[in-house]
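Q: Given only this backbone (369 positions), what sequence would you predict?
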């Protein structure tokens, strides 16, 4: 986002300004917010021309762009569980995840080079290492294990399990020295009960237990990556940070896929057309469009509002899996999913209360979904 140019104050008859507006710093980021500039103080002389019109928009009202971006994050990220499930029908799990993030990462690098030049990708060694670490936790440990787990777990159930990420964030921040509130602890306990109910089909044998375990491990790693991103020095350019995360996670997924031998017997001609379409959807919409909308929302909307994606995505995923793939809506899925969503709602609602310190918890923009 570019900041609007500051207008020159109207000249006054016999007026002498006591403070001059600070000029823009050369080389500052295009999307940086304008610096706070004190108003020009004038002597008690009538100004030439009428006063500027008042802004008719009420303070604090969210514009249509915010709701449009939220709709993108709600629907696109919720639909990526279905796209992953379709992609792994005829594609190897880690190799498909590697293709998704490597393609998206290189596209984002190309975009930055065209729009901002090499300076858009310039980071320090520590920032590069931090972005790579977060990318490995989020996109290899988090997303990679979700992709592997969805080879045997329905997409709706996977999305409900992933909804527990904010609950793990409470646990990690508690280990980091921030004492959780009673409502947060209640939300975590409620969410754990929901995870137990969701895991019941695996205990009963109707769903592969290993797939459920992999996805639960993925939620822990995703929460660890989000937590680490708040503690390590990340690149100041959000798009550059995301590009490095995608490339690091993509290359690691590629390495794991090769070590697992997923390339053996891989016949690209045997990959179905719907799997190719699902992969293209994940690259263009899941990793580029939705992430860009999410990164913009973090700068333009309250974090409590943005965090609602955590309990809207599972609802979208369950409905799409039921409508398109005819995934069954079993009693444990509905009951456990409802309990998990209630726990997440309880945790997120705490940040709306006065006295909550902002910025301590929240998802790092990423290209997971």
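A: Predicted residues:
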């Amino acid at each position: 986002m570019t900041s609007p140019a500051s207008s020159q104050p109207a000249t006054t008859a016999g007026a002498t300004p006591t403070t001059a507006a600070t000029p823009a710093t050369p080389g500052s980021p295009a999307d940086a917010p304008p610096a706070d500039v004190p108003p020009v103080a004038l002597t008690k002389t009538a100004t030439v021309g009428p006063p500027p019109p008042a802004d008719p928009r009420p303070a604090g009202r969210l514009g249509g762009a915010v709701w449009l971006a939220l709709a993108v994050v709600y629907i696109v990220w919720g639909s990526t569980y279905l796209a992953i499930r379709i992609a792994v029908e005829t594609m190897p799990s880690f190799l498909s995840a590697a293709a998704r993030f490597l393609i998206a990462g290189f596209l984002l690098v190309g975009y930055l080079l065209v729009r901002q030049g090499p300076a858009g990708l310039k980071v320090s060694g520590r920032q590069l290492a931090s972005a790579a670490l977060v990318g490995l936790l989020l996109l290899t440990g988090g997303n990679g294990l979700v992709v592997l787990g969805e080879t045997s777990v329905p997409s709706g159930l996977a999305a409900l399990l992933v909804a527990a990420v904010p609950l793990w964030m409470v646990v990690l921040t508690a280990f980091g020295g921030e004492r959780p509130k009673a409502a947060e602890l209640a939300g975590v306990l409620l969410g754990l009960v929901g995870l137990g109910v969701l895991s019941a089909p695996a205990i009963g044998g109707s769903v592969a237990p290993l797939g459920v375990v992999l996805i639960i491990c993925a939620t822990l790693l995703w929460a660890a990556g989000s937590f680490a991103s708040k503690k390590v020095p990340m690149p100041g350019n959000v798009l550059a940070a995301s590009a490095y995360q995608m490339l690091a996670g993509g290359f690691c997924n590629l390495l794991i896929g090769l070590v697992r031998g997923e390339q053996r017997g891989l016949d690209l001609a045997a990959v179905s057309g719907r799997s190719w379409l699902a992969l293209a959807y994940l690259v263009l919409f899941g990793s580029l469009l939705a992430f860009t909308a999410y990164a913009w929302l973090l700068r333009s909307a309250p974090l409590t509002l943005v965090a609602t994606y955590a309990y809207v995505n599972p609802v979208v995923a369950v409905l799409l899996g039921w409508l398109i793939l005819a995934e069954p809506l079993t009693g444990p899925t509905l009951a456990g999913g409802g309990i998990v969503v209630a726990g997440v709602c309880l945790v997120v609602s705490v940040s709306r209360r006065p006295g909550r310190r902002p910025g301590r918890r929240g998802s790092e923009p990423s290209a997971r979904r």
